[in-house]
Specification:
This protein has 390 residues and is an alpha/beta fold. It folds into two domains: 130 residues, Alpha-Beta Complex (Aspartate Aminotransferase, domain 1), CATH 3.90.1150; 227 residues, Type I PLP-dependent aspartate aminotransferase-like (Major domain) (Aspartate Aminotransferase, domain 2), CATH 3.40.640. Helices cover 40% and strands 14% of the residues. The protein is built from 13 helices and 15 strands. The strands form four sheets. Strands 2-10-9-8-7-3-4 form a seven-stranded mixed sheet, with helices on both faces. It has a four-stranded antiparallel sheet with strand order 11-12-15-14, covered by helices on one side. It has a two-stranded parallel ribbon with strand order 1-13. β7, α7 and β8 form a beta-alpha-beta unit. The longest helix has 25 residues. 43% of the residues are buried.
C-alpha cells in the first residue's frame, strides 16, 4: 500500500509549488499549500513504465494506438457509467489548452461565454484573451454551501445570446459536486438555446461522502449535441507535469471545428511520456487511487474537525469534491487584504487568494489538502496561531 504519510522533498525540483515564491514576489520561507498538484508520487506502475521509456533512450515522435484508448474507456464506463467512443476523442496538451481552443474554434469574436464565479481563473482568462464577452452568473453562497441560481443562469444565457457555457464539474474552488437535477436543468437551458457546454471534469475522481459525480453527457442523449467533455489524468494521478487531456466531442461538426483550431495552434503529437503515463495510470492506477481517496477523506475530516474546534469563525465551505478547501474568513471582520497579509507574513503560508477566482472570491482563501496529514496539520496550526485569538 502507498505510504501517503511520507514526506517527499520537492524543493529544488523545478516545482512551481515549492521553488518559485521569490519569482512571484513572495518570501522564500512560506509553506506552499496553493497550486493544485499533490505532494504524493504517482502510482508505481506509472513511474516504472516511465523508467522503461527513459532507459530506452529514444524520444521520437509518438502517437497512441488502440491500447491507449481502451483503459480510458473502461475507466469511465466502470466508474461513471459513461462509455466514450473512440471517434469522439481529441488529445490536447492539457485542459486549459482545450478551453482556449474551444473558445476560439467554436465561438466568434465578441460572442458571449458564460462562467459561474467564483471559478477556476483560466476560465475567465480564456474568454478575455480570445476577445470574447464574459458573462457571469455567480453561484449563490448560503449557509456555507454554494448553489446555482437557475433563474439568473437562464436569463443570462437568453438575454446575452450566450454561445458557450464553461461548466466546472466538480467545481473548483467551491467544492460542489453538482446533482443530477442541477446538471439537467443547466443542460436543458443550454440545449434549448443552442449554447455549447464545455464541461471541465478534471476533478471527477475526487468526490466525498454521499456525493456522486455524473458525467454531463451521460444525463441525456440530447446533451451529446452540445457537449465538449474535458478529462485528464493530471489531477487524479498527479501527472500535471506531463500535460495531456482527453477531450470527448460526440457531435461531428463541433469536433471537426475543434480539431481544426487545435491544428492551427501547431500541436500534433504529444509527449511519449505523457501518453505512456496516461495509459498506465488508467490501466493500473485504480487501487492506488482508491487508497488515496481514503487518505484524503481523512484529511478532509481532520480539517473540518480542526476548524470547528479551534477556528470556528473561519468557515469551510461544504466540500463535496476536489482536494481543494475553500476557506471563508469573512467572519473575522479584518477585510480581505489584511487576511492575505497575515497569512503570508505571520502564518508564513502560501495559499490561493480568493480574488483570483473573481470578485465573488473576496473574503476567501483556497488551500490544498493533497499532502501528508502532518503537513496539513502544520498549515492549519499556523492559521490557528495567527487567527485563533480573534
Amino acid at each position: 500500500m502507498p505510504n501517503f504519510d511520507a514526506i517527499v522533498p520537492r524543493r529544488g525540483t523545478y516545482s512551481l509549488k515549492y521553488d518559485f515564491a521569490k519569482e512571484r514576489g513572495l518570501p522564500d520561507d512560506l509553506l506552499p499549500m496553493w497550486v493544485a498538484d499533490m505532494d504524493f508520487p504517482a502510482p508505481p506502475e506509472v513511474t516504472e513504465a516511465l523508467k522503461k521509456v527513459a532507459d530506452h533512450g529514444i524520444f521520437g515522435y509518438s502517437e497512441a494506438k488502440e491500447d491507449y484508448f481502451k483503459p480510458l474507456q473502461d475507466w469511465f464506463r466502470e466508474r461513471f457509467a459513461f462509455e466514450p467512443q473512440r471517434s469522439w476523442l481529441k488529445k490536447t496538451p492539457g485542459v486549459v489548452f482545450a478551453i482556449n481552443a474551444a473558445v476560439r474554434g467554436l465561438t466568434r469574436e465578441k460572442d458571449a461565454v458564460l462562467i459561474q464565479s467564483p471559478v477556476y481563473y483560466p476560465f475567465g482568462a480564456a474568454i478575455r484573451a480570445n476577445g470574447r464577452t464574459l458573462v457571469d452568473s455567480p453561484l449563490v453562497y448560503k449557509d456555507g454551501k454554494y448553489s446555482v441560481d437557475l433563474d439568473d443562469f437562464a436569463f443570462k444565457i437568453k438575454t446575452h445570446n450566450v454561445k458557450m457555457f464553461l461548466l466546472c464539474s466538480p467545481h473548483n474552488p467551491v467544492g460542489r459536486v453538482w446533482t443530477e437535477e442541477e446538471l439537467r436543468a443547466m443542460g436543458e437551458i443550454c440545449r434549448d438555446q443552442g449554447c455549447l457546454v464545455f464541461s471541465d471534469e478534471i476533478h471527477c475522481d475526487f468526490v466525498w461522502g454521499d456525493a456522486k459525480h455524473r458525467v454531463f453527457n451521460s444525463l441525456d442523449p440530447s446533451f451529446d449535441e452540445i457537449a465538449i467533455l474535458a478529462t485528464a489524468p493530471s489531477k487524479t494521478f498527479n501527472l500535471a507535469g506531463l500535460p495531456l487531456s482527453n477531450v470527448f466531442i460526440p457531435n461531428g461538426q463541433t469536433r471537426a471545428a475543434f480539431n481544426r483550431e487545435v491544428e492551427r495552434t501547431g500541436v500534433s503529437q504529444l509527449s511519449i511520456m505523457a501518453l505512456v503515463a496516461c495509459r498506465e495510470a488508467y490501466l493500473w492506477g485504480g487501487p492506488w487511487l482508491d487508497a488515496l481517496r481514503a487518505y484524503l477523506e481523512k484529511n478532509l475530516a481532520f480539517a473540518q474537525d480542526f476548524l470547528r474546534a479551534k477556528l470556528p469563525r473561519v468557515r469551510l465551505a461544504k466540500t463535496e469534491g476536489t482536494y481543494l478547501l475553500w476557506l471563508d474568513f469573512q467572519n473575522l471582520g479584518l477585510g480581505h487584504e489584511r487576511v492575505g497579509e497575515l497569512i503570508i507574513n505571520e502564518a508564513k503560508l502560501w495559499l490561493d487568494d480568493g480574488l483570483i477566482f473573481g470578485e465573488a472570491g473576496r473574503g476567501f482563501q483556497r488551500i490544498n489538502m493533497a499532502c501528508p496529514q502532518s503537513v496539513l496539520a502544520e498549515a492549519l496550526g499556523r492559521l490557528h496561531k495567527t487567527f485563533g485569538a480573534l
